Amino acid sequence: MKKFNSYSYLRYKKTIPFSERLNQFIDAWFETHKDTFVFTEVDDFNSDDIVETFERHKKRYRETKKIHVWTGESDNTIFGSAEVNHKFRAWHDYIHINHNLGYSITEESIVCDIQRDMLPADWAFENRLLECEIKGQAYYFYKQNKFINNQRLFTCYWLQDTISALNLKNI
């Protein structure tokens, strides 16, 4: 049996999503929740104190019924669109807050599983994409102590070999 070659996605322009139907799913989800979100260029996530960051985010939501979504670092993602990446972050943050799941590696994994469970059961590829987008990037951060610069490239590596992807130094 021929092995899946995720590196073929590297030929795509960065404006082409890895999965159009995942983008459509995210767009549809966002449309029904859009009044909850405020997009902002201010990144108020403190990776040195994730507990305080989560408590602050929950407090803001309790007081305003709004979730602020950071719009930075959205140029090189699997979604092929900064706008869809922002909507994905909105969906992801909504799950964190509404399920009272903070930003620890364990809680990120649970949030990922909740989001994957929301997809149609036969969307195996999209499940892998979410796994990489959430768990993969969280694992990478905890292993390398830095965020990923090129999410598209990281996803290609992750889909081929997760351990090798986590060991990359300059991605």
Give a verbal description of the structure.
By secondary structure, the chain is mainly alpha-helical. The protein has one domain (16-167). Helices cover 56% and strands 5% of the residues. It has helices at 20-31, 50-64, 82-98, 105-118, 124-144, 151-160, 162-167, and strands spanning 37-40, 67-70. The chain has a two-stranded parallel ribbon with strand order 1-2. Helix 2 links the parallel strand 1 and strand 2. The longest helix is centred in the C-terminal third of the chain and has 21 residues, at 124-144. The model has no long low-confidence stretch (mean pLDDT 93).
Biggest pleated-sheet summary: 2 strands, parallel
Helix tally equals 7
* H and E order: HEHEHHHHH
Runs in which pLDDT lies below 50 for 5 or more consecutive residues are none
Calculate Rg over CA atoms. Answer: 16 Å
Helix content, binned percent: 55-70%
Strand content: under 5%
Kindly state the number of beta strands.
2
Shape: globular
Kindly, what is the distance between the CA atoms of the first and last residues, rounded to a whole number of angstroms?
A: 30 Å
Estimated structural class:
mainly alpha
Structural domain count = 1
* Mean pLDDT across residues: 93
The neighbouring-strand order within the major sheet is 1-2
